[in-house]
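Help: read this over?
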Amino acid sequence: MKVLSRLFALVLIVSVLALVGCIGGNDNDDGYSPVLTGEILVSAFADAGNKGNFAALREGERSELRAVITDKFQARIKIDDATPVLYDLDRSDDSKKLTLADTVVGLVTPGTHRVTVEIVAKGAAADAPAIMKRIGHATVVAGQTNDSAIKNVEINYDSTAKALVYEAWDQNSTKTIDEMSVDLSSLKTAIQNLIIVGGVISETATLDLATLKTEIDTAVAKVGVIDIAQTRFSGDYRAFFVNALTATRWVGVSDVSVVDGQITEKVKVNTDSALIDTETSYSVIESSGDLTFSTVTKNRGAVAASGNVAMVHVYNKTPYIGLFIKQPTTASNATLNGTYRVFEYSDAVDASFKPAQPGVQAYSLKFDGAGEFTVTSLFNPDTLADTIPAGTYSVAGGGRITFNGVSSKSEYAQVDPAGNMFAYVSYKTGGRCVFAVGVKQSSDSTWSGNFVEATINGGVDGA
């Protein structure tokens, strides 16, 4: 189930391949062996989303020619400071998408390289301003086939803003773009106002640095540095689980302690009462935010840069998702303050917790920071029981949330230390198993960076 819709402006699939090649024979007598080079494979599509369209096809061209080569835009790819290369883009018949077919940039020397991918006007000069762009870093290792850190990413207004700030940052020669933390909200808005005219992104649009200078300089002055090598997944968490078996639905909560990659988990809430207070020990390997757990096969996970939130996705024959919320030490009612968008998935279950009917809903939950909340329904296509319109809450020092003074062994809610997210599960025999996540809303928030999306099919047989 996907509860969040995404507006993708430009998605790139990039991998790094090091060529083994045939270098055994050498006509030279000096003992010199050529250095192996690598290739960077790039494919992309641009989507104008709901912000506007790319400039239309020439008058008289038939709209049904879906894969017509655009006469207005090209992709421009540059490795480090090398001469950029232009590549043609295909245009969809509705002018919403521009697509770059698989393209190989070859003869890349071993090492870490900055990769800049831009949308430019057709035939643009090497130094002509771009329309949109993204910067990432890829590592080529001689003699090996490598995976790239630039994979399944998108180019949008956020990535364009971040690229402009990175290019102006005085540490860009020694640090990657992923090590830069910055507020992009003002610059992003300025970019949108600059390149979208009358609902159209024209080939004449450009990222005029003079026009954007004030916003760029302001953002650069506030850049922070992220230590991407640090261990983020560490400390005490509460983990919230939901599975996707058609025979039995279960939700659960566990106390999880992570110390130097070693995990101790103690079950606190589970539809199987025999598991309550049982303990399990296992390990986790963390690499630049990616997590791999030793418990089961076919799993992957990720931890946020703050370390406050992590997740695991298990996709074997007993698939499930786990969301880890770090436990604060001094939380209070004030930790929950503001408006949260809550996304809830649930199943109607029988006495043995066999799922009968799945359902979803979304609602807005507003906390006043002093112990009272109000609820507004936003989306309820399955006509689930209406949420209560208002009530009271309390937050313990460790982050556990109690609604309306009711605390039981069959429900649990937890907020993270920063008050940005909370999770909730509950179950009732012959009722519903519920898994919900609340995310704090903010008018100046931006969605930018690399994310892991985990999805499980929570439907039931025949439904």
Remarks:
- The domain at 235-326 is CATH 2.40.128 (Lipocalin).
